[in-house]
Write a structure and sequence with these properties.
75% of the residues lie in helices and 7% in strands. It is built from twelve helices and four strands.
Length: 309
């Protein structure tokens, strides 16, 4: 008996979906837009986080030493920094390497290069480029480097000439703020589209109920329960969501494929098409469950309101 009722509910749900083709199409179309926004928010979040990580990997703390600092002391200090748990890596740039970098960077400025060559000694300083394990650990590393008592006690006063951190910190903070703001905006837009999808699906189901009001009245007269009456409409709404999810995942193929070269060229370098293909199952399940839930909940609310009358 139970299985027979379930079969009838599923059958009439599909019949309602096909019979109300015009209103079904409008509901599916709006749900496609809502699901597309959900999928776009996921992909945008992935891209922005990859961009932030790329920026963080390029930013470090530059420690400049005095001109008179001995190379052995600098290398010893480098080893002590590498022992800190917050430090991911330290790169040593000698005075000669710094001079070579300067020449390459100003290769088109003949006047500056000529002036530098006329100096008897290399005026540039050795430095260490320090990278933290995570962006929130740069503060503790900077505090350690700027603690003159700790460094001067072992290497002498003025051993560290400059710690270039504030400018890099500002870049990370601004980038993080921008990315979080874009993610919040994407979430708000997605919620608005979900609300619109629920509202239209809700009204579509109410229209379907109105079309089928005579059948519902007959079912009530013969003693059909509310769950049996609302079942086909919930199935119909679920079908809206499933069809919309299938269309949406199909749309993401050409969209991500057309964007893959642009996203690789932009800062961050993540291939959205490759990410979409690699994580297709997870994205498809998110969209499928979201679509089915949107349709089912909208239908349930619409029928529940009608059955209360």
């Amino acid at each position: 008996m139970v299985f027979s009722n379930i079969r009838r509910v599923l059958k009439w749900g599909m019949v309602n979906f096909l019979r109300n083709s015009v209103v079904s199409f409008s509901s599916v179309l709006v749900m496609v837009v809502a699901l597309f926004m959900i999928g776009s928010t996921i992909l945008l979040s992935v891209y922005l986080n990859a961009t932030l990580k790329e920026v963080e990997s390029k930013i470090d703390i530059n420690v400049y030493f005095s001109v008179d600092a001995k190379e052995t002391d600098v290398l010893q200090f480098k080893q002590s920094l590498e022992l800190l748990p917050e430090v991911a890596g330290v790169v040593y740039i000698s005075k000669d390497q710094a001079l070579d970098e300067f020449y390459k960077r100003h290769s088109d400025d003949e006047l500056t290069i000529q002036a530098l060559k006329e100096l008897e000694n290399n005026p540039l300083r050795a430095r260490l480029n320090v990278q933290a394990v995570s962006a929130d650990q740069y503060d503790s590393i900077a505090n350690y480097l700027q603690n003159e008592d700790t460094v001067s006690a072992q290497y002498g006063i003025g051993f560290i000439d400059k710690v270039n951190y504030k400018d890099n910190k500002l870049v990370i903070e601004r980038m993080t703020t921008i990315i979080r703001g874009v993610e919040r905006l994407g979430s708000i837009v997605t919620l608005v589209m979900i609300f619109i999808a629920v509202l239209i699906t809700f009204n579509t189901i109410r229209l379907a109920i109105y079309i089928s009001k005579d059948e519902i009245n007959v079912m009530k007269l013969v003693g059909a329960g509310n769950m049996y009456i609302r079942g086909p409409f919930i199935v119909e709404g679920t079908i809206y969501g499933i069809v919309a999810a299938l269309i949406t995942v199909g749309l993401f193929y050409p969209v991500t494929n057309s964007l893959r070269e642009n996203t690789e060229d932009l800062y961050g370098g993540i291939n959205l098409y490759h990410y979409y293909i690699t994580n297709f199952n997870e994205i498809f399940m998110i969209l499928l469950i979201s679509g089915a839930a949107l349709g089912a909940i909208s239908s349930y609310l619409a029928v529940r309101r009608y059955l209360k009358k």
